[in-house]
Amino acid sequence: MKILIVDDSLAMRKIVQRTMRQAGFINHDFCEAINGRAALESIESSAPDFILADWNMPEMSGMELLKALRSKGINIPFGFITSEGTDEMKQRALDAGASFLISKPFTAEVMAEALKGQIR
Amino acid sequence: MSAAQPSPVSGHQELTPDQLVNATSDALTEIAKMMLGINLEKRGPVEEFHNQDLECGVCIGMTSTKGSWNVALFGSEKGNQAISRAFLGMADDAPLPKEELADALGEILNMVAGVLKRKVPAEEAKHIQLGLPMYLSGTDCFKYLSKGLRAYGQTIAGSELDIEVILVWKEEHST
Questions:
Q1: N or C: which end of chain A has fewer CB within 10 A?
Q2: Distance between CA B42 and CA B52 in Å, rounded?
Q3: Mean pLDDT, chain B, as a whole number?
Q4: Closest by Cβ to A107, choosing from B34, B118, B125
């Protein structure tokens, strides 16, 4: 599977990939985008099977990206990884069509649980 | 240094500066253990902070409808590089460009702020907005602490990597 990681932090993009491998999700291809706008612009060429996005990013947030994708009829499975994982934000994420919201900091176990059944 | 006064933090009638800095320290300790595999512990109480000899660090603004405040992590350049390399999974002697150092420290502080936000009551938390982390070094650190605003700090150390991080909570009264 191809997984698009959307985060304005290079460090976090690396850490998400590392943690996914620690969680047992190996042999997957990763592509990256630095914000929602860049992800949206590259969605056709990158053709990801799953999107993992930060919530707060400059130019276009993760929530704006999710809403833009769904409004275009693009239903690629989508998960948030964010520092601000309040219960209210988790509910907003699910209501908008996200599969889950992982709060930072997170462990490989947390990621494995969230992605179970989502990524083969 | 004198002990922090137990006065309410602006915008947080239930949290004193001492409690807020302690909560920030706890958040950093949790993140270091969970994501970096580093054991950090508090060294001493929360105190008013006046140290002008800071080398580098990051700060982030947090605003709510009632006021704003600022959280920062400062330390020696060596200590900040050590914690950033651990975060990035890099070898101790791997080159770490300034941009990547700033990015890693900013992301660590972003997580600290997120944990802190989750510690305040949910009704208030939804009004709190996090700013973008800002990297400071050299004279910028001095300027950060020379605005005449009250600052409180707590030292956190990790013996394994000889890390010493200073946490500063800076009160910004809304006018």
A1: C
A2: 21
A3: 79
A4: B34
As for the ipTM of the complex, it is 0.85
**Across the interface, do A105 and B126 touch by the CB < 8 Å criterion?**
no
CB B60 within 8 A of CB B131: yes
Residue A29 neighbours by CB under 8 Å, 6+ apart: A1, A2, A3
B100 CB neighbours in chain A (<8 A) are: 10-11
Tokens of B59: 């700060």
Q: What does the pLDDT read at residue B11? A: 47
Measure CB to CB from residue A86 to each of B113, B118, B132 and give the nearest one: B118
Quickly count: other Cβ atoms within 10 Å of residue B132's Cβ.
Answer: 12
Q: What is the largest CA-CA distance in chain B?
A: 47
- B2 pLDDT exceeds 80? no
* Closest-CA residue to A79 (of A104, A115, A31): A115
Where does residue B104 fall: left (phi above 0), alpha (psi -120 to 50 degrees), or beta otherwise? alpha
Examine the pLDDT at B123 and tell me if it is beyond 80: no
Predicted TM-score of the model (pTM): 0.85
Convert the pLDDT of each residue in B6-34 to its tens digit.
344 444 455 677 888 888 888 899 998 88
The residue of A17, A18, A21, A84 whose CB has the most chain B CBs within 10 angstroms, and thus the best one to mutate to test that interface, is A84
Name residue A120's amino acid.
R
Beta-carbon separation of A11 and B89 below 8 A: no
CB A51 within 8 A of CB A39: yes
Check residues B167 and B116 and name the one with the higher pLDDT.
B116
